[in-house]
Structures are given as structure tokens and as C-alpha cells.
Amino acid sequence: MHNAASKSESSRQAHSRRRFLKSGAALGAALVTGAGHPIVGRAQPAPDDPSKLLGGPLRPYGERARFEQSVRERPPGTLDEFGGSFTPLDETLGIITPSALHFVAQRDGTPDIDPQKHRLLIHGLVDRPVILTMEEIKRLPSTSRILFLECAGNTASEWRVPTGKSVRRTHGLTSCSEWTGVPLALLLREAGVSQGAAWILAEGADATGNERSLPMAKAMDDVLVAYGQNGEALRPENGYPLRLIVPGWEGNVNVKWLRRLTVVDHPYMTRMESTRHASMMPDGKARQFAFVMEAKSVIIFPSGDQRLPGPGLYEIRGLAWSGRGLVRRVEVSTDGGKTWRDARLQEPILPLAHTRFRLDWQWDGRETVLQSRCTDETEYVQPTLAELVGVRGLDSFYFNNAIQNWKVAADGSVHNVHA
Amino acid sequence: MSTRRLWWLVGIGMLITTVGVWPAAAQLPTYGVGRPPSAEEVKAWALTIQPDGQGLPPGGGTATLGKPLYEERCASCHGERGEDPKYIRLAGGASTLPADRARLTIGNFWQYATTLWSYIRRAQPFDEPGSLTSDQVYAVTAYLLYLNGIIGEQEVMDAKTLPLVKMPNRDGFVPDPRPDVGQASPQPKR
Predict the structure, then answer these.
(1) Between these two residues, A256 and A16, which has the higher pLDDT value?
(2) What is the mean pLDDT of residues B148-166?
(3) For labeling, which of A141, A190, A294, B46 is most exposed (least CB within 10 Å)?
(4) Which residues of A touch B29 (CB under 8 A)?
(5) Same domain (yes/no): A122, A269
(6) Closest CB to A275 among B29, B41, B115
(7) Is B54 on the interface with A (CB under 8 A)?
């Protein structure tokens, strides 16, 4: 009995070794031909019954299952180092965006920064100018907050005509993470802000040296000097090793690769604040130093480029957020805005974070338009595109938080339309 | 104010009175981390040029000098005369505002000439950021201002003259009045 058992054990081990060798050979072939799946050592199809085979080895740093293919999406036709990379919102679950899928906006590439060499300089109108290593910053009292981050140019393609085919292209420049770092107020109090100080100039260590001026009131309120994202270090594209997180404010002021904070008495009129991030109004004047991301929501299922297999029950799913605090209410219309029903908000509902909403819907198979609109804790109600355009015209580019329309055609295909 | 901070301030005060200089070994008072930066460290990073020209280095250039440099290093992205909107149009945009974003230029939109200098020095050319000498940055800046009809071909741009350039759209900016749409209360309640 004992012998039989040990024989069977050794035969299983031999089988496992053969399998290993076989998969190694398959991998070798895949590498030679350049074909096959990118995940190392897993080139063959998965077994029909995984319970009958020894599983794979433990891995020191986890990767997603080889069958998962979600990636960020880039508009075609620009240099690889320049522009935006959109979060596939339609494929995300819950309220946290995986760090690997967090949207990216950059203008001169992702810098390669050694945290051992990185420094943060705080100077200007302060009593005690100081330079800090990453190790020193991490020694200071820390805090973590779940916060959305949205590019001011999110949905900018949609002012004139429906342009993005999918929700990732219309709304994918927003993401939500747990950020960890030191309160900026703590650092500023330590450096001792002098009288007359009214603004902070924050600068990144990338090739553009992205620099933005922030009013002191916000800097002393809730801004984070962050080194953590979803439980680990920031991703390089998201500012490694250090960045500003400015809750509820446009992405561009959340300066990545942060290396300098200069306390000043007036804004320095940098390129990004003086010209790029100014919003043109119909009277020819441009709004400057507009920061807050106003309440916005979007249905991510069903959404553009998806297809419903047929009439029946669906759960409408979406995300809502507000740069002024909590999402209080999300209403959904399944008849192009004629009637509205309250969606269920999924816990946790956190201020300045993505909030997930859901609503059951019986689709009768006829063409219709789906919409969502959210209300935040200041009673602000997400406007229609017509309301926005009525006040701001068609050339303001930034801050398009209009209600999104998804047309469900009779064949189940879903399309981006203007109402 | 904590007793510790008070003592710290008293200590600094005594040092200043007795030694007459700022203490070299200052650290963050409560947590005791960090060190004071050296003058060289601050100088190397504090590159932002303010609208009044503070921080502009010696040197200078004209549009005539800037033209060949622009054509060699900038034109492939921005067009021969700055008219290509693919990576931000620099010149040759709309003559009246408002214009759609692709027709905004230095001439019809930018607020300060110093911003142009500051950005070109640190971020351009795209593939070799920060590689231009001060003279070259002045020259390219002059050429772009010339292309936009703001200065003459032979006008020298330097630390004195650049901040005095009056950009056509200097006064074209207003503060943010939002919330401006929707049934909003003006102040957040948080």
C-alpha cells in the first residue's frame, strides 16, 4: 500500500516534469517564431478541467490572468511620448482604477527617475528652505485617500459632434486611486510660510518641467504630496516617485514627478496656466485659473461600441464624481431624457471619488437613448450639452461635464449621439 | 505654537543676533528631517521666468538669428512658419477670437512673452529638451514673436526688452465664474 502510494506520487511528479518540459518547448517555439501569447510559459490552451492538473508556481510579483486584455487606449497619429492615454472605463469594476490602467497625460515622455537621487526642494517665501530625500519624505506622518483624478480635457472631443465611439474615448481621462503621501500643509508649516505668501508654484522633473501655480488656501487645505498609489509606489506614468494630488481639481495641477515647490506672492503665469489651460468664451475672453472638476457621470454599460444580445433584463452601470465633494444622487433616463429614475449608489460613497451607480432595466428591443445625470452635495446638477454650450459656446475645450447620450439601436448596438 | 517651536525660534533669533547669518544647519523644526538647500541647488532648479522678466539670464537674439535655428529644430513639428496645429500652432491662426483651439496662437492668445522664453528653454526642442543656449532661446523667441507680427525682424530680445513686449491678448483673460451652468449653489458645503 505504502509502495503503491509512493509509486503513484512519483509517476505524478514525472508527469508534471514532462508537462513542464513540454510547455518549455512550446515557449521556445513561440519565442523563435515570435508568435504565441505574451505571458511567459503559458503558451498552450488552458486545460478543460483545471482541477486535474498541478497548477502554476507562485510568482513574486503578480500579473493578471493571461486571458485579460484590457489596455489603455491612445488616439492615433501622435508621437509616442506625447498626449493622452485613456482608461478603458467600460472594462473597470468597482471604484478603484487599476494602476496599470490609470489614464496618462504627458507632453515630453515618461521620465526615468531613481528615487535614491530624487529630491524635493521647498523654497521661496518660507522661513526655512529645505531639500528632502524620498526616504525623509516617507518618514513624515502620512495619510491615504481614495480620490478621482480627471484631466480638464476629458470629453473635450465631444463639444461639436459626437466623436469618441466608446466611453473610454469620450470619458477615459478620469481614474480613481487610493493615494498615499504627506499632507502638503504639513510640509509648508514645517518650512514656515512667510507673510505675503499667496501661491505655490509646483514643478515636475520631466522634460517639460510642468509647472503650475496653486492658491495657498487649497495648498493648506487638502493637497497631498503623494508617493503611493493603490498600496504600492506610484507608477512611472503617474508621477513616480513623487507627485501632487490636488483633490477635485483638474489633472494638470496634480504635478507629476514633483521636485520643486516655490512659495510665491503671485502666480508665475506658466505656459500651462497662462495659455493652454485657459477656456475661451464666446465674448473672446478666456477663463484662467479654473480648477475644480464639476459634477459628472457617465453610463459605462451599455455604452458606445458595445452590443446588447437582445431584449431583456440589463443592469445599467456607471460612474459619477464631483470635484466639490460627495455625489448625492444619480438619475438615469432610458427614454432620451423624458423620464428619470434614481439609480442605486454603491457603497462606499466617498467625497471626491468615483461613485458607482446601478439600475435594472428591461429593454423592450426598441431604439432608445440612455442618459445619466448626477447631483452633488452642493445641489449642483450635471447639465446638458445644450446648457453648457448656451453659456460657454463651442470653443472652451475644457470642463465638458455634459450629460452623455448613448443610443441603443434596435439591433442592440450602442452609439455615441448628441440628443 | 508648541514649546519646541518657540524654543527653535528663540534659538534662531539668538543665532541671527549673535552671528548675524542664517543658520546653515536648519532642519524641519517638528520632525527634524531635510537640510537647507545650497544656493547652487536652488539656482539649478528655480528656472521659471516671471512675467516681469525676473530670472532672465544675460544674452540676446533677433528674429533674423532665430530663423535658421527654428527651421532646423522646430519646423518639423510646428510647420515652416509655425502654422501647423498638430503639436500646438504657434503662428498664423485666427485673426479674431474666439477661435477653435487649433487656431489659437502665440499672437492671438498668449499672455506674456516671458512664458514663451521660459518654456522653450526647459522643454524644447522636443527631442533635446533644455539643450539651447540662452542666446538661441532669445533668438527663437524673437523669431516666433516676429512670425506673429509682434516685433520687427531686427529687434533684439534680451532680459530688458522681452518683458516689455506687449502681447496682443494680454488683457484677454478673466477669472473662473463657475458654477455658471446648472442649478448650483455658489459655495461648496463641505
Answers:
(1) A256
(2) 97
(3) A141
(4) 128, 190, 192
(5) yes
(6) B115
(7) no
